[in-house]
Amino acid sequence: FLGIVGSEVNMPTYVVGGFVRDLLLDRKNYDIDIVVEGDARVFAKTFSRYFEVTCVEHKEFLTTSMFFRNGLRIDVATARTEYYEEPAVLPNVEVSTIKKDLYRRDFSINAMAIKLNQEEFGLLLDFFGCKNDLEKGIIRTLYPLSFVEDPTRILRAIRFEQRFNFKIENRTLELLKKHVSQNYLERVTGQRLRDELEKIIEEPDPLKAIKRMEELRVFEHLFPDSVVDDEALRMLDRYFRRKKSAKPKPVYILAMILLKNAPERSLDYVIKRYGFPRKFPDWIKRAVNISEKLKRTVQSGEQLTLRTFFYLLKKPEPEVLSFIDATLDDKASKLLHDYLERIERIKPRINGKLLIEKFGLKEGPEIRKILEELQLAKLEGLHTEEEEKFVKELL
Ligand code: CTP
Question: What does the sequence similarity comment in the record state about its family (predicted)?
Answer without folding.
Answer: Belongs to the tRNA nucleotidyltransferase/poly(A) polymerase family.
